Predict the structure.
Amino acid sequence: MDGDVMATVKTMPASGPEAGLGARLQLIELTKVYGDVVAADRVTLDIAPGEFITLLGPSGSGKTTTLMMVAGFVIPTSGQILVNGEDIAFRPPHKRNIGMVFQNYALFPHMTVAENIAFPLKMRKWPRDRIEQAVREALQLVRLPGFEQRYPRQLSGGQQQRVALARALVFRPPVLLMDEPLGALDKKLREEMQLEIKHIQESLNITTIYVTHDQEEALTMSDRIAVMRDGRIEQIGTPRELYEQPASEFVASFIGESNFLMGRLERRDGHAYLVTEDGWRVAIPDAEDLPAGEQVTVALRPERIVLGERRGENHAEATIEEIIYVGEATKFRVRLLGDRLLTVKQPSRLETMRWQRGERVLLSWRAEDAVLLRGRH
């Protein structure tokens, strides 16, 4: 039942006049302070109806604290949480009409699947016939029809995750919150569930905040990603924007891999260059607002460096120090003159496999493949 999630997800029609209407969710200067620790620092987000936003960051970055403030389990020190313009920042959780999927699923072990899914509806005092219909629709939505009478202990991890998702969606909330819900699953199942959750979210058009520290998960699932650090949003944008145009060294290193080059900005013959301390000159995109002589840092993705060919404005000779085969790609750690190390990533092809450790090789890349970083380090 956990496999074959690449197929189109068939969903049942939603119940009630509010079905399929995601809410606009706004976080305005949302702050949480514990003593001397600022866990969330003026977090501001404007999330469109039906948008899937991921809060991405390392442990302690403030992403879960922010999510729990939206859920109502953490009271903000200051700030606003607006759902369709109405401030719910100090409303108790059960009065927010928000769906929540926890990291450990939080299923009631003594209740059947049907009873677990029906629980939020009973708390809302829905009539029995409407509850039964909603539970059937929710099980169909997560592809678990026929599992009504099973208990959580009789389910696999992926099935438990689906039941938790069904319980969060059964009352058709306008906002869904998910706190690292796939962390306990193995890699293959986690990747399958990423797509399934995204398909369900899109079919319901439900506004979603998803918390994870897994950058591949964020890139796969999100309409936009808010990268968090030290309680603040470092950068927000689409997966492509964050990968192709990271604003800081932190974002460039947290989303994907990057090589970093530092030096002073030089202009010559209408082109911009980064000149390192040892005099290495690298062609980079021009930043016309920065004066010549300014200290700058650029990020260069490993896959943008070409091995063994002369392409673009930049080229250098290096010695291969390490070769790491990772299936569809091969990583090379290479050393340039001046003890500078770079990582190169190439598709695993026959011509890639000919390189050996200790061999001298030509590297090249285009000026526009380097990204000038402007944010804090």
